[in-house]
Amino acid sequence: VQVVESGGDWVQPGGSLRLSCSTSGFAFNENEMGWVRQAPGKGPEWIVSIWSDASRTNYADSVKGRFTISRDNAKDSLYLQMDGPEPTDTAQYYCTRGGPRSWYKYTAEWGQGTQVTVSS
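Above: the chain's sequence. Below: its structure in token form.
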């Protein structure tokens, strides 16, 4: 299994950023996928997931209405559109298999993550 996140950067509050995740080594189109983030000095926080066929999404209250998850099963890829980020969104972002109650089972597969820094 290989998971590679990209797209992280410094962004001003209220700006926009799009994260990408490229995967291989498992049946991407059969798996619920999501994003988990970890801020400095804090534990991992699940923020969003999407069903295998993209028919349903789940968002944590902390990002609802500001972030949008999507996937391209033809490319085995996952995306996170961040609109209106806030300084509290500063964290390392990880792409993961699983949803809000199962993502923790897949931490051994995580990539290096991608760093998002929100500041003015």
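The radius of gyration is 13 Å.
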